[in-house]
Amino acid sequence: MKKALKRLVWLVLLAGGVLAGLYVLGSRTAHYRAHVDIAAVPERVYAHLVEPDSIRQWVDGVVSLKLIGEARGVGTLAHMVVEDEGRQYSMTNEVLALDTNRIFSVRIVSEVFVATNTFQLEVISNATRVHQTMHTDYIGIPMRVFAPIFKTLAEQQMEADLQRLKVLAEAD
Questions:
Q1: CB atoms within 10 A of CB 9
Q2: CA distance to 42, 63, 150, 164, per residue, from 66 (Å)
């Protein structure tokens, strides 16, 4: 009986250590990256990055994206609703950087994370290479514990979104 209790205590301590380790790792800013080459000029690609109607076509799950106010440029705010597995999530986006046909960066704030999502366009041969980087800080214990596991899923989602962007831009 003592041996079984001792093993149980060790298992609980081990599980607690693993969860604590994941929490510590998840407390750091997560960095995600993806890229795609698109057979289109930067002007065409960039238009799809910044126009709300176009964003809904290539970013998976976006139900709505509405600008808040009339101003456009750095500081522009937008309200975005994303649906995932039947649940809707509300987010606020703020444009952080705009360099026409070169850079578009936005801060995304939700209940569970704050992220900076940046797109950089690079001309290569007869195409435009889009580099996407996302730096994410998770909020709350559950999100921080699972954050290290999200990396592969997040990057796969980014790659899938960029492939839809590619199809859309190349069809113009």
A1: 10
A2: 24, 10, 27, 21
Here the tokens at position 15 are 């599980």
Please enumerate in sequence order all residues whose Cβ is within 8 A of that of 116, keeping only pairs 6 or more positions apart, or say none.
Answer: 96, 105, 106, 107, 108, 134, 135
Q: What is the pLDDT of residues 14-73, one digit of tens each?
A: 444 444 444 444 446 888 999 999 999 999 999 999 999 999 999 999 999 999 987 788
Alpha-carbon span 22 to 25, nearest angstrom: 5
Answer whether CATH 3.40.50.10190 is correct for domain 2-171: no
Q: Report helix, strand and coil shares of the chain as percent, to nearest 5.
A: 40, 40, 20
Domain spans in the chain, listed from the N-terminal domain onward: 2-171
Query: To the nearest whole percent, how much of the chain has pLDDT over 70?
Result: 80
Cα 158 to Cα 119: distance, rounded to the nearest angstrom: 11
- This prediction's pTM: 0.82
What is the DSSP secondary structure assignment for residue 60, as one 8-state letter?
A: T
E strand or H helix at 55:
helix 52-58
Burial (Cβ within 10 Å: 0-12, 13-18, ≥19) of residue 101: middle
**Euclidean distance between CA atoms 102 and 45, whole angstroms:** 10
